[in-house]
Amino acid sequence: MLLAGGQGSRLGVLTSKVAKPAVSFGGKYRIIDFPLSNCINSGVDTVGVLTQYQPLRLNTHIGIGIPWDLDRNIGGVTVLPPYEKSTNSEWYTGTANAIYQNIDYIDSFNPDHVLILSGDHIYKMDYEVMLNFHKENNAEVTIAVMPVPMEEAKRFGIMITDENKKITDFEEKPERPRSNLASMGIYIFNWKTLKDALVVNAAQPALDFGKHIIPYCHSQGVPLYAFEFTGYWKDVGTLSSYWEANMELINIVPEFNLYEEYWKIYTRSTILPPQYVAEGSVIEKSIIGAGSDIYGEVYNSVLGCGVTIEKGAVVRDSIIMNETYIGKNCELNKAIVAENVTIQDNVKLGVGDEVANETDPHIYNNGMVTVGEKSIIPEGITVGKNTVIFGVTTHKDYPDYCLASGKTLIKAGDE
Question: What is the pTM of this model?
């Protein structure tokens, strides 16, 4: 069961019109491709995807599951949005509530084990190895954990285990952590154990795994085990971590390798022509998606599919998503530009001094410029750092043809 209903509000304007798991990543992919590909690479052939917030692009992307070989008569992939019931209709209010509302779907397969995943993490993991660990220990609940630096442990749900990795206690975001094993939000349950826990706790508001189900199982003496994962795993929940994870893909020896033969990442691919790189253009250490036309210069950047970089434009340390147009003689520094954006000629993004963002400094920081999807920036505009632009903007929106560092420009009706 893949939980993909999250809004991802810390990604700012990137998720104002699209669910976080459907945000582009690594040029041609979307975030949800990674857990879905892990499933098919691990031999999991029945996946329920729980959607809620802005699900249209996610639903279109998943379709009937063909790219992941999940278009099957029995099992396969099923998109599970909240739905009207005869007595009442309710949104999924918490991670476990979403599973509770789909008990009938799970029951229809009569499973022994249920794997619960988040749709918004970037990692490669063989769930079969975790399932074998679960069975060998006669566990009823297994929680995937990974070691984190002790000073960061207070940001996570922390598991305390004995020498056999049996969980003896756990703490949610503890001030003084007693362990550094952080929960990854990946669980394997015996279905009977999970079903009982869901039914007993059904009345809890915003029923959640970390707050309700795991503590309940622990209080009932259910054997809980921690499966330690040591590979690459990244929660791309903030713009900074999203930018970093993309930039790590273009390292000479990437920590997270998209090019491994034995662990492919599958995605829905549109039929696009190959890239075109014009004479006199420059590309250094970058990922360029199919159907892109490069006439300018691209350094240390990740470009999606169908992107155009016109002559004289220089793009550095940036993420440019699908079908975006960058005009002539533009200059982009550390920008995240969403899909279907038009940046007209002679625009400069990410120049000047760093100033804290005036509306959401906890979202727009680290010297970045963020541009929401389908935005238009008119020609000749200069934009500072820690800024955000969203909407069809005109020269009237920029006094002196400038948006100073730390400013927010979101046109009404585009939020």
Answer: 0.87
- Residues near 202 by Cβ (< 8 Å), separated by ≥ 6? 100
**How many Å separate Cα 180 from the centre of its chain?**
24
Alpha-carbon 210 to chain mean position: 20
Q: How many CB atoms lie within 10 A of CB 355?
A: 16
pLDDT digits (tens, 9 = 90+) for 43-99: 888 888 888 766 666 767 676 566 565 665 556 777 787 754 544 445 677 788 889
14: which residues sit within 8 A by CB, 6+ positions away? 8, 23, 239, 242, 336, 338, 370, 372, 373
H/E run at residue 89: none
- The set of residues, in sequence order, having a beta carbon less than 8 Å from that of 38 and lying 6+ positions away, is 117, 123, 124, 125, 126, 127
Query: By the 8 A CB rule, do 171 and 160 touch?
Result: yes
348-349 and 376-377 beta bridge pairing: unpaired
Q: Which residues of 102-117 are buried (b: 16+ CB within 10 A; e: fewer)?
A: beeebeeeeeebbbbb
Find all residues with CB under 8 Å of 364, minimum gap 6, and list them: 12, 239, 357, 370, 386, 387, 388, 408
Q: At 211, list the tokens.
A: 């707050």
